[in-house]
Design a protein that fits this description.
The complex is a heterodimer. The radius of gyration of chain A is 14 Å and the shape is globular. Chain A has a five-stranded parallel sheet, sandwiched between helices. Chain A contains six helices and five strands, in the order βαβαβαβααβα. Chain A is of the alpha/beta class. Chain B contains eleven helices and 13 strands. Classes of the chains: A alpha/beta, B alpha/beta.
Chain lengths: 133, 375
């Protein structure tokens, strides 16, 4: 797989996190497109189909990431989606994604903590892109 | 695909078969539902038959005609209420009197469909009920499994405190790894952003202290005779450097002095928050007018800006904790989302009111009405 042929959509309303994640992913060699909220992401998705998306969970609303994930899966069922969240650690809520009913409800391919190490992130992205191909 | 059972109770065979036909291929699906709903229609020509069905095969929704050959619809409703059956009841009735409607509602009917109804009317009523049922089930499920997503103050607070730390940590790591190459100036923006986030976090902590004071500090309140103009001037002096940066003119209008019974620190927090918002959300070169007037038994404090304004849906939210209006214009404005909730709580302490009027693109006016308390 050649990373420079792959476009990754990053959606986050924290402009700093967005910039940092974008830099990280560009350093992996991928192309990136970004949006700073659910609405902007939806507009972008009308024009572009990315190869993978990384979505923040709490944006305009506390569940914007879920809604965006759901809509995106409806439009592009084959594009893998990572939900990056700090929610689990911060609020004590844990979404057990191995549980089938939760997986069905949330529909993301992977949940990652926002503080994830670069190598681990790269690994997860590669895994999902290979699965997709 | 989930199925909801609908029991239609009507002595007219045409209505029963009509409902069955209309709902046979009807599906309700919303983005937030994990599956679509379809409907299975059961029929009962009398209230007695309906009760028998309810006993053996409890429906989720019941469409109930009031005028039935034997017992009346309203009696079926009473039966359901008495037996505490969990059924959403919709009355279908051609001549519902007000009395009947009131009685039915108090006995638990949740909707009315006038007879005759169109397929569309039936469908939209069923759609609403399905949505309600789904959300109710979802909430129950979440509560049962102890996973209810409660975005309580503390959880959001920890999010708000952790976000800047994560961001600063991220920048420091980038700088440490020299991710932007060897040139020092390429890191300036990262340093500036880190400093901004630290400033934001400090403001959040200051606001939290205000909030703690407001919510717990009744005993510490120091109520004396205070001059509103003096406090307004202090607040303006505090904010002036910021106003100068933005080239915003600050004006205080009214006849000084005006004394009230109050806690000087509390009133200053109110002015500080409103005036700093009025500068923050203003246009460069704009204007902030602070008017203080006594009208009858009230004192009116108005803080008026010439800024970006608020939509009516924004206005509904701005007094809730941690709410920040996010749009293209507010993108680069930082704030804790606690300022206005603090203002609101303080004004409540004075039995006052705060009202907001705004024209997007032209400016907002925050108007406080304080009943005069001259002891």
């Amino acid at each position: 797989m050649n990373p420079s042929n792959k476009t990754i959509l990053i959606v986050d309303d924290d402009q700093d996190y967005l910039f940092q994640l974008q830099t990280k992913i560009q350093n992996f060699g991928f192309k990136t497109i970004t949006a700073d909220g659910q609405k902007e992401a939806e507009e972008l998705l009308e024009k572009v189909k990315p190869d993978l998306a990384i979505l923040d969970l709490m944006m305009e609303n506390e569940d914007s990431g879920f809604i965006l994930c759901y809509k995106m899966k409806k439009k592009y069922p084959d594009v893998p989606i990572i939900i990056a969240t700090g929610v689990a650690a911060e609020t004590g809520i844990s979404f057990d994604i191995h549980d089938e009913s939760n997986r069905k409800w949330i529909k993301a391919d992977c949940f990652l903590d926002k503080g994830i190490r670069s190598e681990k992130l790269k690994e997860e992205i590669d895994k999902l892109l290979v699965k997709q191909a | 695909m989930a199925t909801l059972k609908i029991l239609v109770v009507d002595d007219e065979p045409g209505i029963r078969s009509g409902v069955t036909r209309i709902l046979r291929n009807f599906r309700v699906d919303y983005p937030f539902m994990d599956e679509a709903f379809e409907f299975e229609v059961l029929e009962a020509p009398t209230g007695e038959a309906a009760i028998e069905i309810i006993e053996n095969n409890i429906p989720d929704i019941m469409l109930l005609d009031n005028k039935l050959p034997g017992i009346q619809g309203i009696e079926v409703l009473e039966y359901i209420k008495k037996k505490q059956k969990n059924i959403v009841v919709v009355m279908i009735t051609s001549y519902a009197s007000l009395e009947l409607a009131v009685k039915a509602t108090s006995d638990g009917a949740s909707d009315f469909i006038p007879k005759p109804f169109t397929p569309q009317e039936l469908k939209s009523s069923i759609e609403n009920i399905t949505k309600r049922l789904f959300l109710k089930n979802m909430t129950n499920k979440l509560q049962d499994s102890g996973k209810q997503i409660r975005f309580t103050f503390l959880s959001v607070l920890s999010h708000e405190l952790k976000a800047p730390l994560n961001s600063i940590e991220g920048y420091l790591k980038m700088i440490k790894d020299r991710q932007a190459g060897p040139k020092l100036e390429d890191y300036d923006v990262m340093i500036d952003r880190s400093l901004d986030r630290i400033k934001g976090m400090r403001n959040l902590i200051l606001d939290l202290l205000d909030l703690t004071r407001v919510e717990s500090g009744k005993a510490k309140r120091n109520v004396t005779e205070i001059d509103l103009f003096k406090i307004a001037r202090t607040a303006m002096d505090t904010m002036r450097p910021y106003a100068i940066q933005r080239d915003v003119t600050l004006k205080l209008n009214g006849t000084s002095p005006l004394f009230i019974q109050g806690d000087a620190e509390e009133i200053e927090i109110i002015f500080n928050n409103l005036i700093s918002n009025a500068i923050k959300y203003n246009k460069d070169g704009g204007c902030v007018d602070c008017n203080i007037i006594e009208i009858g038994k009230d004192i009116i404090i108005e803080v008026k800006d010439t800024g970006i304004g608020l939509s009516s849906s924004d206005i509904e939210k701005i007094f809730d904790d941690f709410v920040r209006i996010k749009n293209e214009k507010t993108k680069n404005i930082t704030g804790s989302g606690l300022g206005l909730p603090i203002v609101k709580k303080l004004i409540d302490n004075y039995a006052g009111k705060i009202e907001v009027t705004s024209i997007p693109g032209q400016g907002s006016t925050f108007k406080i009405i304080l009943p005069i308390n001259k002891s």
